[in-house]
Specification:
Number of domains: 3
Oligomer: single chain
CATH architecture of the largest domain: Orthogonal Bundle
CATH class of the largest domain: Mainly Alpha
Number of helices: 12
Shape: globular
Length: 397
């Protein structure tokens, strides 16, 4: 059965002339008698999202509602429907790194038009939730990055780009432990074009320099955003305080005009924040400003991520090259344990840690995984001036 042939245009009135609230829309969805809404999902914040029970299919699903404007959004709706039809006609492996789209339709709820995208529900936590708690470790970041790139490659083979890869849109499945790209609402067709000129509802932090400057998207846009994801998984989440991203140059310009931050309207303040983010994306200081790299971060991983997040699209590796480079990195999974102590488990059949003995004196210790022995100084290792120097020594063993 062709998916579009069973498409319905649902319409539910809320009997109000004012803008509908989330409560109104939730009630309107349930009034269709197709869904029981179980929970609103707040991560992402670019659209209304719910965990719901699909009554006819007797399954838990994820619903995303996106504002729809006839004509302007028809192309994006066709692309999501294409993904739904592809999922319907192919065997969807449980190890896939793309969420399965079950349905996509236009719904009228409370007098407003929405694109309603219905996908399988991934049980787990988002990368956003995980990195808020701290880094996952560079080896885990690398493995997850490879799988995310595999999902991106699936999209690219269909002639699509994602455009909105960010921590809130990638889930870490409790079932497989693998990352799943769980939001496909911003996909766009590339086809024979090198670039797509359009704006989507990006979070500003993950917007590329070419998008800020020209509204351009390409395959290289997805590579840039995966590079940011890997960085955050390795080092922890970027700072989400808007004021953190104000740039000293823009604040100086503001003060020269005799204005203060408190004098700005919300839209003016947001524009100033976005300008600071755009500046840092262009000069490639955004990641370090948002979350300083751990002292033990591998230089080889840092070099690759620098290429993946290069300001110019033609300076970034392809998806396949980025994936191959990541797969070729064999690095300890350094995690901070306590102040001045970094630990990596199961590195060359032993656990390894770096300990600060005193100022500018670091020691490498290890214990064999097969024994219960405590950590002891790694025989033959010198003392090091910093944790990064010690980490590089371990990687070379």
């Amino acid at each position: 059965m062709v998916l579009c042939s069973r498409r319905r245009r649902a319409s539910v009135s809320c009997e109000r002339s004012v803008l509908p609230s989330v409560h109104d829309i939730r009630a309107a969805l349930e009034a269709t008698e197709r869904f029981r809404i179980e929970e609103q999902i707040h991560e992402g914040m670019q659209a209304l999202s719910f965990r719901a029970h699909n009554v006819a299919q007797n399954r838990t699903v994820f619903l995303k509602l996106i504002d729809y404007t006839p004509g302007n959004d028809e192309q994006s709706l066709r692309e999501v429907r294409m993904l739904a039809e592809t999922a319907e006609t192919t065997t969807h492996a449980s190890s896939s790194n793309l969420v399965r789209i079950l349905d996509a339709e236009i719904m009228t709820l409370c007098g407003k038009l929405f694109v309603c995208i219905q996908t399988e529900f991934v049980v787990g936590s988002s990368v956003y939730a995980k990195v808020r708690l701290g880094p996952l470790g560079q080896q885990r970041a690398i493995l997850n990055g490879c799988r995310i790139l595999a999902g991106v490659s699936e999209l690219h083979q269909l002639g699509l780009i994602h455009r909105d890869l960010k921590p809130a849109n990638v889930m870490l499945s409790d079932v497989t432990g693998h990352p799943v790209i769980a939001d496909l609402g911003s996909v766009a067709t590339v086809g024979a074009q090198v670039l797509v000129r359009s704006w989507s509802k990006h979070s500003p932090l993950y917007t590329t320099p070419e998008t800020w400057d020209h509204g351009e998207f390409s395959h290289a846009t997805d590579v840039y955003q995966v590079g940011m994801l890997v960085y955050e998984m390795a080092n922890g989440g970027l700072d989400i305080d808007d004021r953190h991203w104000l740039h000293v140059r823009d604040l100086g310009d503001l003060h020269r005009l005799g204005k203060r931050e408190a004098d700005l309207e919300d839209w003016e303040f947001s524009r100033l924040v976005n300008k600071g983010i755009a500046r840092r994306a262009a000069d490639q200081t955004l990641l370090a400003h948002g979350c300083a790299p751990m002292a033990t971060m591998s230089a080889s991983l840092a070099r690759l991520l620098k290429r993946m997040t290069a300001p110019r699209p033609d300076q970034r590796p392809s998806v396949s090259e980025a994936r191959n480079k990541l797969q070729g990195l064999a690095l300890p999974n350094w995690l901070p344990v306590e102040e001045g102590v970094f630990e990596a488990q199961n590195w060359i059949q032993c656990d390894v840690r770096i300990v600060a003995l005193r100022a500018s004196v670091f020691q490498v210790e290890k214990r064999h995984a097969s024994s219960e022995r405590s950590f002891r100084k790694w025989s033959g290792s010198p003392h090091f001036a910093d944790a990064g120097e010690a980490a590089r020594w371990v990687e070379g063993q």
